[in-house]
Amino acid sequence: MAEDLNWAVGGEAGDGIDSTGKIFAQALARAGRHVFTSKDFASRIRGGYTAYKIRTSVEEVQSVVDRLDILVALTQRTIDENLDELHEGSAIIYDGERSWEAEIPDEMTAVDVPLKSLAEDAGGAIMRNIVALGAACEITDFDVEYLDEALEKRFGGKGSQIVENNKEAARLGQEYVAENYDLEHLGYSVETTDNDYVLLNGNEAIGMGAIAAGCRFYAGYPITPATSIMEYLTGRIEDYGGHVVQAEDELSAINMALGGARAGARSMTATSGAGIDLMTETFGLVATSETPLVIADVQRSGPSTGMPTKQEQGDLNMALYGGHGEVPRFVITPTSITECFWKTVEAFNLAEKYQTPVFLVSDLAMSVTEQTFPPEAFDMDDVEIDRGKLVDDDEVDEWLDAQGHFRAHAVTDDGVSPRAIPGTVDGAHMSTGLEHDELGRRTEDQDERVQQVDKRYRKVETAQEEEDWDYREFGDEDADNLIISWGSNEGALVEALDYLEDDGIDVRVISVPYIFPRPDLSEEIEAADDVIVVECNATGQFADLIEHDVLTRVKRINKYTGVRFKADELAEQITEQLSAEVPAQ
Amino acid sequence: MSSDVRFTDFKSDKQPTWCPGCGDFGTMNGMMKALAETGNDPDNTFVVAGIGCSGKIGTYMHSYALHGVHGRALPVATGVKMARPDIEVMAAGGDGDGYSIGAGHFVHAVRRNVDMSYVVMDNRIYGLTKGQASPTSRSDFETSTTPEGPKQPPVNPLALALASGASFIAQSFASDALRHQEIIQEAIEHDGFGFVNVFSPCVTFNDVDTYDYFRDNLVDLQDEGHDPNDYEAAKEVILDSDKEYQGVMYQDENSVPYHEKHGVTEDMSEIPDGAPEDAMDLVREFY
Which residues form the Pyruvate flavodoxin/ferredoxin oxidoreductase pyrimidine binding domain (chain A) (predicted)? Predict the structure, then answer.
């Protein structure tokens, strides 16, 4: 297992916790180290405990662990909240000059730094967090110059004086610790490499994937934790001729996106559970009008308003079954931040190839987690665009009926009809949520009804045959123990393999990025002695699907505390489950 | 765009199922004539319709069209126009669709000032569900769900539009064919959101707001010498609950449509075969 360092900064919301953490994460990435971040935050603007955690190593890290080595504590609560993760070798940086007296357990190393005074010496109290970053550099023997680049990136727009002041603040923090403490016995040092990494989160990857895939129109309504997709696209999509509209509500957002898509633009909306409820009204229309649309659901804790700033994977059934009547749709679940990018690209292609709504189901853990990757992980040369059966002026003719009407919903062998967008000569046609004939005109004719329903489902059959509904695999392919997972649990599972290996337990991990259609896992399940399905919800929505597919019972690991799985915790639970009885039939 | 487009080119071969005498026939004829007269053809026109008798209008017209979900015509039309500033966009619906379930969207579409026209067939009743009170029904109008009348004032859609910052507000009468067509034409030609409330009588369920009632009571603002660019005069006419008016009540001469304000000019349906050439810049931003 990699020698990793776990660092955190915590305080009250509004203390600049997020930007402080991000600056340190960027400095570590610039130093060629891998970084995996996680955030604790409350659903409020100011006040309330907030923390930004970084796990860093020269090897790839893709999970959080139950250990904290260096903690920058701006409040007592920061220390209290993290007591479980602190250990004898932990160093806690705090400001002893502040009105509170830090209660730090005896066995840990208290590093009292006058953060505020030193920040004032550098030009302003606001930089006290940067002083703390300098102090952290000294404790970890990390060259403070790596911070400089991150500070330039962060404050460059505010002028060189601000940048210089921040650099000075960092150095004052570093020098203070060097002069007043001898911390070599803690043994922290962070190795650097020559690698260049990019640092980004899942929502940024979805936004980037959307632009790469040719998405030009986005309509959305702000909601945690999906908003940052809209924020990413705003200010960037315009560079590519696109536009973002902040709609008045989610109903409007999905209908605007639907309008954009019918006009021929690759269009998208994104929201989270509560917003998906409102958008559900329009799913059926998107599907029956055969409109290509990507709908991202960045899941958070439900039901109702639930815990808006906490992790969960509880919307799977909603994505699969939401909406009245029977509606074909694709459900894709990226399993990592790079997959957030690539599956978004794929979602747009599937939407247009099959003229169907595509759910892109992500979750809060991925949306707020930043991770380092080699830039080639997002190689734009590998982006392919498939617009399906989009017809131009010359191709329209083959799809006109005897009276010269365009058969926008033509019944075809593969279930996919030709698609004409406004401006295409002779392509004018009507589409509707009402049942319709080949021309899109409403009908209640029994034969036409059956033809259209069959046609829409035939698209799914075609897609099942033509596309790779594959899975990702880790661990020992021949192991008797099979773990199945979907969405963001993959990273923690991959790292849990190391812990299990140490205990002599061989495990095969299958990580599924497609829920509908999904890969047939019956052979893999039959070959295994023990099958455990891991997911962040209480009822095991994916486990239910697996049991339905293979007609056999599986074991389950469910977490619904609002916090994502940790690698070490998962390893423990897997070990426990392996010796447990399979639930009764 | 061909110059020989006739209004019948906008007609579908589907026979309307509206009741004989329904105001929506006249409303639709005016829309088709206005579209043809303003130089549009079915291949560059997108009509978005709501739900209800009025919502069927898209089915009886020939153009690119979407018949959507109750109350959501305006968001769909907004999406079409943003993606395709080159396309003529018209939204159509009824008083229930626009001022009840879709009232929120109406307010925001008006203030967004997207360049489209919006035609509301206002018959002051729910027709397709067989005669319940609508948001524009009179407060004493007896229906199956309001046996003693709604006992609440009707929505004044023109005032709602004015309060929301509308750049074009008009009202017409489906039966006054020429004036109706002229007013719709002005809405189409307006740079921004062209809103027209059309009195479109329901001959089956509304025996109060009838053709005769409007014929007898309608005042044409053109005859009154009303200046639509005069905001104060518009306010007076719009808030006057004693009279029924037709004509353009208000038009902001300086109206700049949403897409122009936001610099949207491109046809968004055109995208490269792969990622855009400079897309690696998006990745480098995360260094």
Answer: 209-454
Under the phi-then-psi rule, with left for phi > 0, alpha for psi from -120 to 50, and beta for the rest, what region is A60?
Answer: beta
Classify domain B14-286 at the CATH topology level. Rossmann fold (3.40.50)
Are B287 and A423 an interchain contact pair (Cβ–Cβ within 8 Å)?
no
Return the ∠ at Cα A26 (arms to A23 and A29), rounded to 5°. 155
Reported as a single tens digit per residue, the pLDDT across B218-269 is 999 999 999 999 999 999 999 999 999 999 999 999 999 999 999 999 999 9
Task: Tell if the CB–CB gap between A266 and B271 is shorter than 8 Å.
Answer: yes
Domain boundaries, chain B: 14-286
- Taking an 8 Å cut-off on Cβ atoms, the answer to whether A213 and B66 are in contact is no
CATH class, domain A4-195, is alpha beta
Q: How confident is the model at residue A583 (pLDDT cuts 50, 70, 90)?
A: confident
Q: Identity (one letter) of the amino acid at A471? A: Y
User: What residues of chain A, 20 to 39, have a C-beta less than 8 Å from chain B?
Assistant: 29-30
- Residue A156 CB-density burial (10 A; 0-12 exposed, 13-18 middle, 19+ buried): exposed
Residue ranges, comma separated, of all CATH 3.40.920.10 domains in chain A are: 4-195
CATH 3.40.50.920: does it fit domain A472-579?
yes
Does the structure show a pLDDT above 90 at B200?
yes
Q: How many CB pairs under 8 A join A and B?
A: 209
User: Which of A249, A304, A315, A318 lies closest to A278 in space, CA to CA?
Assistant: A249
What is the model's pTM?
A: 0.97
Stretch(es) of chain A classified as CATH 3.40.50.970: 200-382
